[in-house]
Design goal:
The chain is of the alpha/beta class. The chain is built from ten helices and five strands.
């Protein structure tokens, strides 16, 4: 049905252990390009989709899946790569309070992210799209509390509501959220889902794509999960055989396109 698979996202799509994208590539066993990078946001993803299209020439036989990221990420292309994507502006040590006070606003987050998502859907034939970080509602996000001395006045609230009304209906179809297990069963403090969590996301995506996971893939995923639970320590040390298995099995057939050094 598909001849090539392109994945776009952040660390939820490209991580040091198999993600939903790796599972799909493993299951379909087709040419695979992973354009995801840790820490990047939706603006960077949009630019990478254009780069991928210019490089590979998207066609009707391609499976293109985007896992949109958090909305308060500051994307910068520095030193020949997106490796300086540093995650959430509001929770990351790389951005101080002065930066947040003077260079961040929730309205800007809404505009730049909706613009990236809507224009990407109009430019490219995205097969389906998902997100493992929910699209926040301002009052529920706690963002207003993090921006000191800012009060969400009536005019700001009204403007935000107008933005939602303008952009949300044009987002380009449904965006499937994880809605499943996001816990990490490994012996580490890691906000990323474990391998079974990624399997849960694949099951949701496959339902939308009218695909069926093979029993062999499910067995493989469960095997990797058990292996990780057994071998991953509190210091993120992984036994050599675990890394070697990933290299030789899950990712051996991938045309893995690294976008960072």
């Amino acid at each position: 049905m598909y001849k090539r698979f392109f994945a776009f996202g952040c660390s939820f799509t490209n991580y040091w252990y198999p993600t939903w994208a790796d599972i799909i590539a493993h299951d379909l066993d087709i040419e695979f390009y992973n354009y995801a990078a840790q820490g990047i946001g939706n603006v960077a993803m949009h630019t990478l989709m254009l780069e991928a299209d210019l490089t590979h020439k998207f066609n009707q036989d391609d499976l293109i899946i985007v896992c949109w990221s958090g909305w308060s990420r500051e994307d910068k292309f520095l030193e020949l790569g997106w490796r300086h994507g540093r995650g959430n502006v509001l929770s990351d040590v790389f951005y101080d309070k002065n930066y947040i006070l003077n260079h961040w606003s929730y309205e800007n987050d809404l505009i730049k992210n909706y613009t990236a998502i809507i224009s990407a859907n109009r430019m490219f034939n995205i097969t389906t799209q998902c997100s493992m970080t929910p699209f926040e509602v301002y009052e529920e996000s706690g963002y207003a509390k993090k921006k000191e001395n800012e009060v969400l006045n009536n005019s700001t609230a009204k403007y935000i509501k107008q933005l939602y009304g303008k952009y949300l209906p044009n987002i380009g179809g449904r965006i499937f959220s994880s809605n499943g297990r996001m816990k990490n069963a490994y012996k580490v403090n890691d906000p990323h889902p474990d391998i079974l969590g990624h399997l849960s996301m694949v099951e949701r995506l496959y339902k939308d794509l009218d695909l069926t996971l093979s029993k062999n893939t499910i067995n493989d995923v469960e095997k990797y999960h058990r292996l990780f639970v057994k071998n991953v320590s509190d210091k993120y040390d992984v036994y050599k055989d675990v890394k070697e298995i990933i290299k030789q099995d899950f990712r051996k057939k991938q045309n893995f396109r690294r976008i960072s050094r």
